[in-house]
Amino acid sequence: GDSVTQMEGPVTLSEEAFLTINCTYTATGYPSLFWYVQYPGEGLQLLLKATKADDKGSNKGFEATYRKETTSFHLEKGSVQVSDSAVYFCALNTGGFKTIFGAGTRLFVKA
Amino acid sequence: NAGVTQTPKFQVLKTGQSMTLQCAQDMNHEYMSWYRQDPGMGLRLIHYSVGAGITDQGEVPNGYNVSRSTTEDFPLRLLSAAPSQTSVYFCASSQPRDSDTQYFGPGTRLTVL
Q1: Which of A75, B26, B70, B102 measures 20 to 30 Å from B93, CA to CA?
Q2: Are A61 and A48 in contact (CB under 8 A)?
Q3: Interface test with A, best of B38, B100, B101, B108 (most A CBs within 10 A)
Q4: A66: burial class by Cβ within 10 Å (0-12, 13-18, 19+)?
Q5: Would you tell me how many other CB atoms lie within 10 Å of the CB of residue A110?
Q6: pLDDT, tens digit, for every residue of A24-55?
Q7: Residue B41 is nearest to which of A44, A99, A103, comparing CB atoms?
């Protein structure tokens, strides 16, 4: 079945460090790929999405590129801030609205 | 525009008790769903609805009931709570034309003793 695998956390970085959170997927068909972010005590919010191969999603300085050849959608940010501390979920959707989520990666950013 | 709202925020139950988690959205979204979030497991789909009067089971439906009498509301009922249902529950909604992008409520943290 469809699945999403993302790197285990927590990831701890200093402010202004470079961030990469790895995500790979298994899916039949051609899924849309997503990154959701969950701030402490809140629900998930869509951070960015990409709907086809080689698309790059971007938002708030975060980027991820849909790599069909490596079935990956790694999240990157050039310079993280304390306010980026959150849990990040990689997800896929192959149609309809049933979304498959990864286990989540917790990010701590130290001042 | 409040988006997706959930009540209560926190709840403690004893084994065997029943309760209803409330979810409402004011965006006129046709699709609504319930997920549970457990450590190390991401979110798992419990039940979903594609419109008023239509519901279906997701990945982990056992022990839960849902109904959808209006577009706005999608309550989740625990029939006889068990410790295995201790989790954080999220309600989400989306539109058919953009169904792969979901809007989540703030969650309900449930503890079953």
Answers
A1: A75
A2: no
A3: B100
A4: buried
A5: 11
A6: 999 988 899 999 999 988 889 999 999 999 99
A7: A103
Contact yes or no for B43 and A41 at CB 8 A? no
CA B37 to chain A, closest CA, distance in angstroms equals: 9
Nearest residue of A to residue B93, measured between CA atoms: A97
Phi, psi of B69 (to 5 degrees): -85, -20
Whether residue B97 lies within 8 A of chain A, CB to CB, comes out as no
A4 close to B (CB below 8 A):
yes
Is residue B61 a contact partner of residue B47, using CB atoms and an 8 Å limit? Answer: yes
Quick check: A102 contacting B, CB < 8 Å? yes
What gap in Å lies between CA A108 and CA B75, rounded to an integer? 34
What does each of the 113 residues of chain B score in pLDDT, given as a tens digit?
Answer: 779 999 999 999 999 999 999 999 999 999 999 999 998 788 899 999 999 999 999 989 999 999 999 999 999 999 999 999 999 999 999 987 777 788 999 999 999 99
Give the Cα separation of B35 and B104 in Å (integer): 10
Per the DSSP assignment, residues forming a β-bridge with A64 are A57, A75
Backbone angles phi, psi at B104, to 5 degrees: -105, 145
